Recover the amino acids of this structure.
C-alpha cells in the first residue's frame, strides 16, 4: 500500500533521482492539469536536471480537496512550499501554469529569496496583454466547458468521454479557469529572472505579439521559441521542447 502524501509532498512531486548538484526545474501544470503531466519531462531530463512537479488541490490524489480559485492565493501556497527546496531553481509553466510560475517568482523576489535561474513560460500570453473580446470560460455549462477543453486538444482528451472521469476533472478545470480569468498582474511588474517563452504557431490563445510581450516583464533577457502546433504543442513537439529546456539550462551553467 502506498503511504498517503503529507506536508510538502502533497504539493511537490519528484519522480526520478537527480545528481547532487543538479538544478531543480519546478513544473506548473495547465488548467485542469496535474503533476503527472510532467512525468515524461522528469524521465527525459534526469539525472542532470531534477524535475519537481506541482500538484494543485482538487485533482488526482487531491481530488477531495477544494480547488483554489484565486491565482494569487494558489501562488502564495506554492511559494511557501518551494522554500523547502535547496539549491538553484528554474521554473517551467504551461498555460495557466506560466502565469502561476511568474507569480511565484515574483513572490520569491519580494521576500528576498534567490530568483529562479530561468522562467520557461509556455502557451500563455504576457499578463499585460488584453484582448478586445474575452470569454468567461469558467461560467460555461458543462457541455460548453467540455467542448472548450476538447477544442484545445492535448493527449488525454479522449478520457473525457468517460462520465466518471469527466465528473472528477470538470470541477478542477472550472476552478482553474476562474483563477486565470480573474488574475491581474500588478502593473509594471518586472522580474530579475531571464525568460524563455515557448509558443505554438497555431495556438488560438497566444499570438506571436502576445508571446513577445513577456520581454516587458524581465530586467534580463527574453528569448521566444515558436514550435509547430496549437495550444498543446508540448505533446507532439516534446523532443524539441526538451532540447530547448536542457540546452538553455546547460548554457546557464546552473
Amino acid at each position: 500500500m502506498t503511504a498517503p502524501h503529507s506536508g510538502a509532498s502533497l504539493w511537490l512531486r519528484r519522480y526520478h533521482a537527480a545528481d547532487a548538484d543538479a538544478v531543480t526545474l519546478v513544473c506548473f501544470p495547465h488548467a485542469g492539469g496535474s503533476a503527472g503531466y510532467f512525468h515524461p519531462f522528469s524521465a527525459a531530463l534526469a539525472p542532470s536536471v531534477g524535475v519537481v512537479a506541482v500538484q494543485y488541490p482538487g485533482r488526482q490524489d487531491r481530488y477531495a480537496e477544494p480547488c483554489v480559485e484565486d491565482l494569487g492565493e494558489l501562488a502564495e501556497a506554492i511559494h511557501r512550499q518551494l522554500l523547502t527546496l535547496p539549491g538553484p531553481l528554474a521554473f517551467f509553466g504551461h498555460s495557466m501554469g506560466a502565469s502561476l510560475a511568474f507569480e511565484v517568482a515574483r513572490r520569491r523576489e519580494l521576500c528576498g529569496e534567490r530568483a529562479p535561474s530561468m522562467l520557461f513560460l509556455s502557451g500563455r500570453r504576457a499578463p499585460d496583454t488584453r484582448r478586445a473580446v474575452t470569454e468567461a470560460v469558467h461560467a460555461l455549462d458543462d457541455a460548453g466547458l467540455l467542448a472548450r477543453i476538447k477544442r484545445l486538444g492535448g493527449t488525454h482528451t479522449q478520457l473525457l468521454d468517460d462520465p466518471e472521469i469527466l465528473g472528477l476533472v470538470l470541477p478542477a478545470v472550472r476552478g482553474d479557469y476562474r483563477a486565470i480569468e480573474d488574475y491581474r498582474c500588478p502593473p509594471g511588474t518586472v522580474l530579475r529572472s531571464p525568460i524563455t517563452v515557448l509558443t505554438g504557431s497555431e495556438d488560438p490563445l497566444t499570438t506571436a505579439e502576445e508571446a513577445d510581450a513577456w520581454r516587458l516583464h524581465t530586467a534580463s533577457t527574453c528569448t521566444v521559441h515558436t514550435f509547430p502546433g496549437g495550444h498543446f504543442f508540448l505533446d507532439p513537439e516534446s523532443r524539441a521542447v526538451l532540447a530547448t529546456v536542457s540546452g538553455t539550462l546547460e548554457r546557464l551553467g546552473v
Summary: Residues 163-182 form the longest helix (20 residues).
